[in-house]
Task: inverse folding
């Protein structure tokens, strides 16, 4: 009987561990997910162009439900947060973009702007320096860092 109990215990532990591994696994969006994400992102872009920022944010967030790691949607969401002067939210979004794609020098530039909006000069400078390390021939990060000296 003890033998059967041990086998059952091993089976339960194995199932629990498999469940934890599966829960931590990244869900790849299906073709349908990608289609829905794109539709919401496109509608978000339309709202953004029309200056309907709350609606744009809602659409981008809906798009991210279907494709959470879509850097284009995240990037657009971050830009809207900058437009409506919500730098804290923009920092979260652009930090996510560079976490997904650490070579996105434009996201680092905007991350720097968001940090500057929060008065975090050192973090802004680091973001712009990272951007320049990826793409050294940019002029805007240099300009942004010069502006920091005047703040």
Result:
């Amino acid at each position: 009987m003890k033998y059967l109990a041990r086998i059952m215990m091993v089976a339960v532990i194995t199932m629990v561990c498999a469940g934890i591994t599966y829960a931590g696994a990244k869900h790849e969006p299906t073709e349908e997910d990608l289609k829905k994400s794109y539709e919401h992102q496109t509608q978000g872009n339309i709202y953004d162009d029309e200056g309907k920022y709350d609606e744009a944010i809602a659409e981008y967030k809906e798009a991210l439900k279907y494709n959470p790691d879509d850097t284009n949607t995240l990037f657009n969401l971050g830009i809207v947060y900058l437009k409506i002067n919500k730098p804290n939210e923009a920092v979260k979004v652009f930090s996510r973009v560079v976490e997904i794609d650490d070579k996105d020098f434009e996201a680092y530039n905007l991350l720097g702007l968001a940090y500057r909006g929060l008065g975090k000069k050192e973090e802004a400078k680091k973001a712009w320096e990272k951007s320049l390390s990826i793409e050294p021939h940019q002029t805007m990060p240099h300009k942004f860092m010069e502006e920091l000296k005047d703040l």
